Structure formats: C-alpha cells, structure tokens
Amino acid sequence: MTRPPGFRSPALTEQPDLPHWQQRLAELAERHQVPGAVLGIARGAHTEVAAHGVLNKATGVTTTPDSLFQIGSITKVWTATLAMQLVDEGALDLNAPVADVLPELRLADPRVARQVTMRHLLTHTSGIDGDVFTDTGRGDDCVERFVGRLDEAAQNHPPGATFSYCNSGFVLAGRVVEKLTGMSWDRALRERLCVPLGLEHTVTLPEEALRFRTALGHDSENGLPPRPVSTWGLPRSAGPAGLITATAGDVLTFARSHLAGGTAPDGTRLLSERAARAMTEHQVELPDTHALGDSWGLGWIRFGWDGHRLVGHDGNTLGQSAFLRVLPEQDLAVALLTNGGEAKDLYRELFGEIFAELAGLALPEPPRPPADPVPVDVRRHLGRYERAGSRIDILEAADGPRLRHTTTGALAHLVPEPVQETALVPVSENQFLVRYADSPSWIPVTFYALPTGERYVHHGMRATPKVS
Question: Where is each Beta-lactamase-related domain found (predicted)?
Fold first, then answer.
C-alpha cells in the first residue's frame, strides 16, 4: 500500500489529530455514499471521536459523536468475554461439553449435542448451521426458547472439522452464560460488563435505544443512493450473536479493557490477564485467509498486517456495518460505525490511512484477479451447495464459470436482492474471486474437502456443504 501524502513516521505517544480525521471521514464517507458514520480512535487513555452525516435520511437527524449504531457481530467478543469471566470463576470449562451445563440441549445430531464444547462455539467450529434467525419472541426467555429449537438446525460438519462462521453457536454460548449466571443474556451483559466499564450508552433492546440519538440502517439496489431500511433490527433471540447498539466511545472503552489485560478504567478487574491473553491467541486456521482475518481466537478475529498482529471484529446488521481493530503493541484501537452505503470500502480506505499515519503499518492489499487468466478445470466444483439461509450454485456458462447466490429462509425478505449471479474468476484450481453488482470489492471463493472426503465451498466466511 502506498503511504498517504504527508505521511510521518509514527510516535507511540502521538495522539490522533481530530480535525484531520474529521475531514477525512467526511470526504471518504461522501465518496462511498455512507449516510452517517462515527470514527473513534483510542491510544492509551486518550480517545478522539469524529462524526459525519445523518442517522436517518428520512428524518435528516445529524450524526454526532454520542450517536448509537448497531455494532452487529462485534457483540460476539462481548459474549466471549462473559464466557471467559465464567472460566475465570471456575464455573465453566472451555473443553467440556456444554451439555454439562445444558443437559436439556438437543441438536440435529444427538452425538454432537454430547460433544460440542464452549471452545467450539467461540471459534465457530461447532458445525451447527449458523444463520438461523428464528424469532422466539421478546421475552427474557427468548434465548432459551431459541436454543430449545436448535435441533431444527442442520449439522453442516463434524465439530472441529473446519471453520464456519456461526451465529447460532454464539446464541448457544449466550444461553450457557444465562444458565450459569441466573440472568438473561442482556442483564448479564449489563451487570458484568457495562456497569463496571461505565458504559452508559450501550444497549441491547430497541426501547433502550430510543432513549438516545440512534442510527437507522440504509440499503441500496440497482445503483440507486442508499435508502432507509424497513426493519430496524433482528429478533431479540439473536442477542448474544449481534444485538448490541452502542457509541464508538463505548466500543473503544470495551476494547481498552482488553488492551489493559482485562481491567476497567478505574482498575476493576473484569478478566484475568491469562483469560484476556487467551482470547487473542491462535485457536483456528481459516480455509480462506483473504476474506477477513488469517485466523481466529476466542471471540476475536486475528489479523496479520504488515508483519504485525492485530485483533478485532466486524459487524453487519440490517443496513448497518461496524469495524473494530486493536493493535496491542501500540496500545491503539480504532472503531468505525456506519449506517449504509459502501461501508467496507470506507473502512479500507480510512483505516489504511489511520494505521499508516499512527502506527506505521500498511493494510494487506485486497484480493484481485490475476493479471493473466488462469486456466482451470471447474467441472469438479460444479453443482449446488446449501445451508440454512444460503444456496450457492456453481454453473458453467459459455463465457466461463459463474456463481449464483440465493438468500433463502427468514433473511430473504430482508435483503434488497435475494438472488445474485456473477462471474467466477479463477485464481488457482481451488481459489476463485467474485464481484457482485454495485460493489467494487472482490470476494474470495474457496473449494476444499474435509479429510473424510465431504466437499465444501467457503464463501462469506461460511462453509457450505455440497448437496448435489
């Protein structure tokens, strides 16, 4: 990556120049059609927050530094932190079957119900179909009721056999937290993390979000400008997997507690240093190391940038996207919260500048097709791959291989274009790239087989089994 104009070698004591980053946020958000965004940069105990745009294009309410956005799956790191607190307390063993805590657990495969562990859940290796969003109501028992229906979710691969991003597994982890604390997941989050961290603008329920200046998501189709979505949030039962709504400042306070080895700003210990460190350590390799990180910890995604190790997480809900990156060696954390548009492209360009300027390191280049076409025999990859919420067809057309992705089930009516078809560009025999309409980004597609022979496609961080 080329260093930006005016680049200076960073000093670890250097604090972010807020007016500069305010200007860059505004310029880049406009370029990428992001209606509203908040950028937070924390180095040590010092935090700067910039805001731009509007929270809702229909109302024109201005985005401010204290505005709340849905942080989506960044929530998973908070749920993992709750689990690790219970490990610290001796109430939970990461390697013991969760059925020891939940003897009532029923899954599609009874053997898996007896085998799956909290480590499987926190590393997305349980094999439980991950994109199940059953709405089990608004009561405090919604997570319990969701888990009570997990036997309806397919088992996509044996526990530990491969990585497949799994929302359902984190809801199950949240249920373990509920059982061991005697609280709903929402209350456990509030009492065990939000209160000791002093997070007064972090909520999980829409009626709580209404107390604050809160963003609405936006989507777009057919090249039109982003427009407000018709549904604000996902069902409450998805809470442990992705329902926190917060300010950038609160997200950074949470991140700083991990940078501080598990302590709150006032010195209160939330996690042991050993547990905080374990969450960042390598747990699982990924079938595809180009889509996001290169490996996974306990809750955290691990990133290798320019020879340096970062952790973080992304979050995507209905028209909202959030990004968190933490560079422990420089005591630096950066969060970006957005409500639509080409948010990932905004993230790449803005974080590229921030980490070059403040940390002296470059983001990895995004995947791109090879300069010269790569001849491959795609016939062994042809066919249908399917899991809950997603169907992928690999087709052979006159102009080359194509991928057709169909969003199915409960999510189909929540996305603007449930069926998308695009060219499948070869990189190697098993590695391909696709680029969907209205997006400039190339997305990896990886074909592979388990040692036992079952064939999968890895796309969008999910392992989808071949069914025909």
Answer: 22-343
